[in-house]
């Protein structure tokens, strides 16, 4: 049977290399080709509107899943994502993120599994397999070396070839070999070439060398030159309509600029993906989604410290508990990218979940805020807002002329930011807009406390804020270009302050005039007045109770597209809160709700410390059960926590004056550099305490060569309760320039006083390096470390690898 490309003219083929609209590919029903509908991921399914109305399930972030070190769990989360996609009619999910957080400042690190390429590769491929088992495509992102956000469209990652292949491309190569159906190219340049035009990566390595048969597509608005992209191996430009590929290629189809076989390959790969996702639906899976999300959240919670076995909390007849902290009231469930998921309004906060759980167990529970959340742009929705009809929210009206008084469309929204791609209700096409149009939001705002309020507005046009009908603040935004997605999420704004009185409602109106553009956005917020007594109230409460759970961390706008962090320190007000609470109550459990390595020097006096990451919508329920001992704190660190910021092998993510960001750490990413330099971190990769205790009794090495090698580890739970252990195997290669690397791992559940044997394969790849343009065995003696982390080894052996791949134990 002829392929689709063989049935089409060159002009028809070209059309299929660009999307049809913002989220879908073109269809040719007369040739049996259906459209493919995409949605952003990877923590859940975002809707096409990318706003608060598209409610979906929210999983833990990539780093939290990485902290589980659990193949099976991540596979089941992938299945849940696949089922969510099928529920809303989506055929392909943009995820997972297989980039690596080489610096703790990386703004989007929360989406990434680990600093280790093998851990990322294996867990990422389990997520992919779970999604695709449900008949939905996974589109792994972002190929390649898109490990930072600063100037991501213009910057050039300067990386030597061995480092690209051994570290940053390896998770994608692994996914390709395991059968991922799609990949998405990065915005950045790699060694001077835009990733969407990088023939060595796309065509030569992925398509030719690995012989991967999936679809290569651009990130949204990520192409710059259609001919160079199609020739390099890019199959599809998104979004549509075409900007550089698609019909824009037609004038060059017969001038020798585009090889027909490259165009045909792109079309056939689009067809292959369409056939895969439109195959008959698989049998439904049987699971409780909320139970799975709770399990996943608990499995990622890392118990960093547990002095005198403070956890799990034990109750008696007079047990008292304080739940304190900004993230108890306003948890950070997820980051602030365009993959942000709208949560169900019934999702409990951490404070609500802990209070419900512990009160039912006989505890007396009190709460305190301590300090205000540390927002970049404080949300207006933190206040009581009322639309004209009395409904909670804002009136949003659209006008076809700035001077119009009669809206052409109206809706009620409950949000602090709005974005529109390509089209706007009532306005139609934003690109084809003639002259200017206008949008207006209005609401009745009731302050909770008297004092100075700081109002913020921003957008992509000329915006004016009116309070009680009087103009108070202007913002002169501009039409978007360059990094469109990033600029929409950065939330640049103007602000002013006004004294308001508690309970006295005011009228807020924000009007923005705008012109033609690919996209538009409008955002606004209000910071409440400082409450000097918040800290004192929290410290007084901590002093009079037996136990404290102090929840601190980030806000949902801390991790953004196009923005990297400036520090690993928690906000100064939170550090003061931690130190003062711990000073008056040694039985304080500090829960850190942040998705990157943080400075832990302020935690010296904490009784216990839990790293929670962004744990998804079941954060509160899972945390309550971990604190009470009903669930195990199942996480192990997937990244390294340094004792000092200057110890990180990669720090600044700001390109130099030439736009270059040099990967000077080479293949020694993260923990590899710490081990090589002999620098002891605060907490090592793989670290995490359990409520159970384990003895590593012995091991057996199986196999005669690198193609059939494995280890059996005998593990005994010496505790009186069941628990989870993560067995980790590390290799130290020959020579003083070698580095330690993770080779294998397995998360296991062991009943109390039970002894089990665990099989861990040692793949050939862990004995290879990229040398002279190919994978080559590292010949010589390799030390094998088996243990609980990269710095906690319980068993050890040494083996020799020959030129031919034979292995001998020394």
UniProtKB/TrEMBL annotation:
Name of this chain's protein: Beta-glucosidase
Gene3D superfamilies, alphabetized: Galactose-binding domain-like, Glycoside hydrolase family 3 C-terminal domain, Glycoside hydrolase, family 3, N-terminal domain, Immunoglobulins
Family: Belongs to the glycosyl hydrolase 3 family.
GO MF terms held by the record: beta-glucosidase activity
InterPro entries: Cellulose_deg_GH3 (IPR050288), Fn3-like (IPR026891), GH (IPR017853), Glyco_hydro_3_C (IPR002772), Glyco_hydro_3_C_sf (IPR036881), Glyco_hydro_3_N (IPR001764), Glyco_hydro_3_N_sf (IPR036962), Ig-like_fold (IPR013783)
Domain PA14: start-end pairs: 389-540
GO biological process, one term: glucan catabolic process
Keywords: Hydrolase
Organism domain of life: Bacteria
Pfam family, one: Fn3-like
Organism: Pseudomonas jessenii
């Amino acid at each position: 049977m002829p392929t689709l490309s063989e049935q089409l003219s060159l002009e028809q083929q070209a059309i299929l290399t660009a999307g049809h609209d913002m989220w879908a590919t073109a269809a040719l029903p007369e040739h049996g080709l259906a459209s493919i509908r995409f949605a952003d991921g990877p923590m859940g399914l975002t809707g096409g509107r990318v706003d608060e109305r598209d409610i979906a399930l929210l999983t833990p972030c990539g780093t939290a899943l990485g902290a589980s070190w659990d193949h099976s769990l991540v596979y089941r989360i992938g299945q849940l994502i696949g089922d969510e996609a099928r529920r809303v009619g989506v055929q392909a999910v943009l995820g997972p993120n297989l980039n690596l957080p080489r610096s703790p400042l990386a703004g989007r690190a929360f989406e990434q599994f680990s600093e280790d390429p093998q851990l990322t590769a294996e867990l990422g491929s389990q997520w992919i397999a779970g999604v695709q088992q449900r008949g939905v495509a996974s589109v792994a992102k972002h190929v390649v070396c898109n490990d930072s956000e600063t100037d991501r469209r213009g910057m050039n990652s300067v990386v030597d070839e061995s480092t690209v292949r051994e570290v940053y491309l390896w998770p994608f190569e692994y996914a390709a070999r395991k059968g991922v159906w799609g990949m998405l190219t990065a915005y950045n340049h790699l060694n001077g070439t835009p990733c969407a035009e990088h023939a060595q990566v796309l065509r030569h390595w992925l398509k030719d060398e690995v012989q991967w048969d999936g679809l290569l597509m651009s990130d949204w608005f990520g192409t710059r030159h259609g001919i160079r992209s199609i020739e390099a191996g890019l199959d599809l430009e998104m979004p549509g309509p075409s900007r550089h590929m698609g019909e824009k290629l037609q004038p060059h189809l017969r001038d020798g600029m585009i090889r027909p076989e490259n165009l045909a390959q792109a079309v056939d790969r689009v067809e292959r993906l369409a056939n895969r996702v439109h195959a008959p639906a698989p049998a439904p899976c049987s699971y409780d989604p909320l139970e799975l999300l709770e399990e996943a959240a608990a499995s990622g919670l890392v118990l960093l410290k547990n002095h005198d076995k403070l956890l799990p909390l034990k109750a008696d007849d007079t047990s008292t508990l304080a739940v304190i902290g900004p993230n108890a009231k306003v948890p950070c469930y997820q980051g602030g990218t365009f993959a942000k998921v709208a949560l169900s309004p019934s999702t409990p906060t951490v404070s609500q979940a802990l209070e419900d759980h512990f009160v039912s167990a006989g505890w007396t529970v009190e709460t305190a805020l301590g300090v205000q959340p540390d927002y970049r742009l404080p949300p207006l929705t933190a206040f009581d807002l009322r639309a004209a009809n009395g409904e909670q929210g804002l009136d949003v009206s659209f006008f076809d002329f700035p001077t119009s008084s009669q809206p052409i469309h109206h809706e009620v929204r409950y949000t602090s930011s709005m974005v529109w791609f390509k089209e706007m209700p009532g306005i139609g096409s934003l690109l084809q807009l003639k002259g200017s149009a206008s949008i207006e939001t209005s609401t009745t705002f009731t302050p909770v406390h008297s004092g100075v309020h700081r109002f913020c507005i921003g957008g992509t046009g000329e915006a004016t804020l009116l309070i009680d009908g009087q103009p108070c603040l202007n913002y002169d935004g501009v039409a978007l270009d360059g990094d469109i997605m990033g600029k929409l999420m950065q939330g640049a704004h103007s602000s002013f302050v006004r004294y308001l009185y508690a309970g006295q409602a005011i009228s807020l109106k924000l009007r923005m005039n705008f012109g033609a553009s690919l996209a538009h956005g409008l955002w606004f917020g209000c910071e409440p007045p400082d409450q000097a007594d918040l800290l004192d109230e929290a410290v007084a409460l901590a002093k009079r109770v037996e136990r404290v759970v102090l929840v601190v961390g980030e806000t949902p706008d801390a991790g953004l597209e196009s923005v990297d962090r400036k520090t690993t320190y928690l906000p100064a007000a939170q550090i003061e809160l931690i130190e003062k609470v711990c000073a008056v109550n040694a039985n304080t459990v500090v829960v850190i709700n942040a998705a990157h390595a943080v400075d832990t020097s302020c935690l010296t006096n904490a009784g216990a410390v839990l790293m929670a990451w962004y744990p998804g919508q079941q954060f509160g329920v899972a945390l309550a059960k971990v604190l009470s001992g009903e669930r195990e704190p199942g996480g192990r660190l997937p990244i390294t926590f340094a004792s000092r910021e200057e110890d990180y092998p990669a720090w600044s993510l700001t390109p130099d004056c030439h736009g270059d960001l040099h990967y000077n750490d080479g293949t020694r990413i993260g923990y590899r550099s710490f081990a090589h330099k002999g620098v002891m971190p605060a907490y090592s990769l793989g670290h995490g305490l359990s409520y159970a205790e384990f003895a590593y009794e012995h091991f057996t090495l199986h196999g005669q060569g690198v193609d059939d090698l494995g280890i059996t580890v005998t593990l005994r739970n010496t505790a009186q309760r069941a628990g989870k252990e993560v067995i980790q195997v590390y290799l130290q290669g020959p020579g003083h320039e070698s580095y330690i690397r993770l080779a294998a791992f397995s998360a296991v559940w062991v009943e109390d006083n039970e002894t089990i044997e665990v099989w861990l394969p040692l793949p050939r790849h862990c004995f290879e390096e990229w040398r002279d343009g190919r994978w080559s065995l590292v010949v010589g003696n390799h030390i094998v470390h088996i243990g609980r982390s990269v710095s906690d080894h319980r068993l050890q052996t040494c083996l020799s690898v020959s030129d031919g791949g034979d292995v001998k134990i020394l």
